[in-house]
Design a protein that fits this description.
This protein is an alpha/beta fold. It binds NADP nicotinamide-adenine-dinucleotide phosphate.
């Protein structure tokens, strides 16, 4: 896409490794143009261990804010001056705002996921929510689900200790080992995959045989959006469940992240309008159906 740059233009970025296929620059620059703002958003490759150099450079060249993806979402925390309550609760940061040299970390993954879920006609309040995985995305989504009134939030993970650690001190949360996933699914209202199993280029293999135990009609939502129909979605769809990929989450976390960078409070109508625009710009269908 064509972008405009002036001497006054603010600089924003996404960092990670790999970063070459990130949709964030397309989404953010589309949103910046739609809002008539004077910002430019870049993708910058930063390898694990490269954070201190990047943070120094960001201060020096005057970057106003940046998003983080793998492998930095937890590693960045010790370098930050402040965390928002959302990031503190999730123990994960996907957005950093730089003001007067101070770096403030925030997480928009959970709220972005919830807003995408609402587009699909579902929401967390009073629901039993089961999450596969116990990493950064799981933490952020789980805390949003708890804080928005889910009846129960169940974490099913390959490494049971990580699931237990995530649930510690949260009365509505419970941990299950992956080997006993079926036990958690019979009365689950919303199932979410936050493992990278099935993600293009992740090289992770694994199946979802336990899906046959999922409550009839419960939606199965993946955080992955490449491929547009993930193995998790295909398996759930085969069993008759409504399915969706992670493009909605990506779009809405981006909208809330830009709002955080620029201290803009978007009303519901603006979020919906930007969401529609960015979903279209991404070229990826929520349901995987083109
Ligand atoms: N759409 C979006 O906007 C968005 C935003 C954030 C993340 N994501 C996606 O969400 C996924 C997770 O991201 P993350 O940052 O949470 O990653 P992460 O912190 O590395 O956590 C990954 C989790 O998946 C589990 N896992 C990994 N490989 C597995 C396997 N082969 N079988 C079973 N479980 C496995 C890990 O289990 P152990 O604890 O046993 O290691 C861990 O709990 C990625 O695919 C990422 O691209 C999407």
């Amino acid at each position: 896409m064509r972008v405009e740059y002036r001497n006054s233009t603010g600089l924003l970025a996404v960092i990670g490794d790999p970063i070459g296929h990130s949709l964030s620059p397309l989404l953010q620059n589309t949103m910046i143009r739609e809002l008539g703002r004077d910002d430019l958003y870049l993708a910058i490759p930063v390898k694990r261990g490269g954070l201190p150099d990047f943070l120094q450079a960001a201060r020096t060249i005057g970057i106003s804010g940046f998003n983080l993806t793998m492998p930095h979402k937890q590693d960045v925390i010790p370098y930050l001056s402040d965390l928002t309550p959302e990031a503190g609760r999730a123990g994960s940061v996907n957005s950093v705002r730089i003001r007067d040299g101070r770096m403030e970390g925030h997480s928009t993954d959970g709220i972005g996921f919830r807003r995408a879920l609402q587009d699909l006609g579902y929401d967390f309040p009073d629901r039993i929510v089961t999450i596969l995985g116990a990493g950064g995305a799981a933490r952020s989504i789980a805390m949003t689900a708890v804080d928005s009134g889910a009846r129960q939030v169940r974490i099913v993970n390959r490494t049971p200790e990580k699931a237990e650690a995530l649930c510690a001190g949260e009365p509505v949360m419970g941990a299950w080992p992956l080997t006993r996933a079926e036990e958690a699914l019979g009365d689950t209202d919303i199932l979410i995959n936050t493992t990278p199993v099935g993600m293009e280029g992740a090289g992770q293999t694994g199946g979802f045989p336990f899906l046959r135990a999922l409550k009839s009609g419960a939606p199965a939502v993946d955080c992955i959006y490449a491929p547009a129909v993930t193995p998790f979605m295909a398996a759930a769809r085969e069993l008759g469940h409504p399915v969706a990929n992670g493009i909605g989450m990506l779009v809405y976390q981006a909208i809330y992240a830009y709002g955080f960078f620029r201290e803009l409070e978007f009303d519901g109508e603006t979020v919906a309008r930007l969401g529609k625009l960015l979903l279209k710009a991404s070229g990826v269908e929520h349901s995987g159906d083109q």
